[in-house]
Automatic annotation (TrEMBL):
Keyword field contains Transferase: no
Taxonomic lineage: Eukaryota, Viridiplantae, Streptophyta, Embryophyta, Tracheophyta
Keyword Protein biosynthesis carried by entry: no
Family matches, as PROSITE patterns: RICIN_B_LECTIN
Family annotation (InterPro entries): Ricin_B_lectin
Name of the featured protein: Ricin B lectin domain-containing protein
Occurrences of domain Ricin B lectin (ranges): 32-158, 162-288
Domain of life per record: Eukaryota
UniProt keyword list: Disulfide bond, Signal
Signal peptide: 1-24
Pfam family, one: Ricin_B_lectin
Length: 288
């Protein structure tokens, strides 16, 4: 593997975007080896609360490399397992499962028809039976919900627990730069790794955060063509979830909106917006 390929592979692991590492349905345990962590909202890991009752609740907690309650596998039958015999399922088996708690069940004692999951390229983990997605917010138990493209619905199968910190480069050696403060705009400036306002933390939940102030997220003011991109306080909303596509565009997952640059007034700083994906060079970015 050459150096550039290694860099791109690390980005794919760290950045919960359109190129998510899929949980493959391979023989035995999945493509990532015997077990892996599932990193979700705010860089926290999917965790079982106790080890183990018949139905053990799940939540998010600080990631720990060898913590057995955070080590997940997926088998070729589509089940997601912890300690091999405990399967992830919605606790409710009714037809109305929206908002149902997700638990680890002893599937060596009971086989249910709703035990299968699919890891999608956009980072969601889809419950096959209900069509809902795995959703987790800090301080709450994990549930299945309708997919709203929220950061709390994005997951990364990885052993990299710390967000990648990088510059985001546009054309002409210009990099994305934040202006200090909440609800401030972003612009472009000559790239420099020493400029703290050009350094961004790329989280597994799809958020792009000021590295210096990680409670501030890159945000589109709306999910509409031409909406400005600003830095605002991180919240669980789709305007703060981003994806890096294979054509180097940065998008809102499951939309046709990508990050773009407008230079309408020559003497003023360029505006960063979201706009319709059209393949223009102004819509391509490099993470380094």
């Amino acid at each position: 593997m050459d150096k550039m390929t290694q860099v791109l592979f690390c980005i794919a692991l760290a950045f919960s975007l359109a190129t998510h590492t899929a949980i493959a349905a391979a023989s035995g345990y999945g493509s990532f080896g015997s077990r892996t962590h599932l990193v979700g909202r705010d860089g926290l890991c999917l965790n079982t609360l106790s080890f183990f009752g018949y139905y053990t609740p799940t939540d998010l907690s600080l990631c720990e490399q060898w913590k057995s309650s955070q080590l997940w596998s997926i088998l070729e039958d589509g089940t997601m397992r912890i300690s091999n015999r405990f399967c992830l399922v919605p606790k409710s088996q009714s037809t109305e499962v929206v908002g149902a708690n997700v638990v680890a069940m002893d599937c060596s004692k009971e086989i249910r028809h709703d035990m299968k999951w699919t890891k999608n390229k956009d980072g969601t983990i889809h419950h096959d039976e209900s069509g809902l997605v795995l959703t987790a917010k800090p301080g709450r138990t994990v549930t299945v919900e309708v997919n709203e493209n929220l950061p709390s619905q994005s997951w990364e199968a990885t052993e990299t627990f710390y967000p990648m910190v990088a510059n985001i480069k546009w054309l002409d050696n210009l990099c994305l730069k934040s202006i200090e403060g909440e609800n401030s705009y972003v612009t472009l400036n000559e790239c420099s790794r020493d400029d703290k306002n050009q350094r961004w933390a790329l989280y597994g939940d799809g958020t792009i955060r000021q590295n210096e102030y990680r409670h501030l997220c890159l945000t589109s003011s709306e999910r509409n063509y031409g909406a400005m991109v600003v830095v605002s306080r991180c919240a669980d909303k789709p305007q703060q979830r981003w994806g890096l596509a294979e054509d180097n565009t940065i998008n809102h997952p499951n939309t046709n909106l990508v990050m773009d640059v407008r230079r309408e007034v020559p003497l003023l700083p360029p505006m960063i917006v979201v706009d319709k994906h059209d393949g223009a060079a102004s819509q391509r970015w490099t993470i380094y």
